[in-house]
TrEMBL record:
This is L-rhamnose 1-dehydrogenase (NAD(P)(+)). One of its GO terms (biological process) is rhamnose catabolic process. Pathway: Carbohydrate degradation; L-rhamnose degradation. Pfam families: adh_short_C2. Gene3D superfamilies: NAD(P)-binding Rossmann-like Domain (3.40.50.720). It comes from Devosia insulae DS-56.
Amino acid sequence: MLLEGKRAIVTGGSRGIGRGISVELARQGADVVINYFAGADQSFARDTAHDETVAEIEALGRRAIAVEGDIADPQVSADLVQAAVAAFGGVDILASNAGICPFHAFLDMPPALLQQVVGVNLNGAFYAVQAAANRMKDQGTGGAIVATSSISALVGGAMQTHYTPTKAGVHSLMQSVAIVLGPYGIRCNSVMPGAIATDINKDDWSDPKKREYLNNRIPLGRFGEPEDVAKVVAFLASDMASYVTGAALLVDGGLYVNLQ
């Protein structure tokens, strides 16, 4: 196991790519604090994904706790670190994954929607990284931070003018904090998922025509699964990547190089 005995926090860790990351880190030996947010939507308030993810991790023989909170609130990141310290004794890994992408046209983009997406995707990543890094620094044993950026950091999207800048920002954030935190032995990297089959892009992968088009554009011939991203996160969090920091790895089946 690559991460035996490590203590991890995964933001947005109960669904989609985040769930895949939470489970893979546990499979590799880590105990996991799973952050999730029910939100104002009552259908999500009744969601049991976090409980199911905890149960899946416990079935692997690792410990897990779920902590609810909107990552756009700076206090939530502090609470996640405190929860990890109380439950597991510290923090060795942060997977900053929480993100939203409510598709919307640019010309009539409501300011509130822009602020919400920036608040979760970019500000939330900043707060989570800052809180975890301070704990890692105080522990004096180094650590690993892996943020979920996106192929969208490198390409445009007509219905994603509020989303793509935040993912470019996450990529840039990891480059900058890699410089700041390197002297403390804290490595900071990002993954850039391409077309991954999750709730956030369900319209694309559930529509047969869109799926066929994208499958034809992806050199490996298929949509990715959350596990495809999770395995790369586990690698970057492990000692196998001990000399890797400030890097961004595309996890897209080759889609980016075939977009031209």
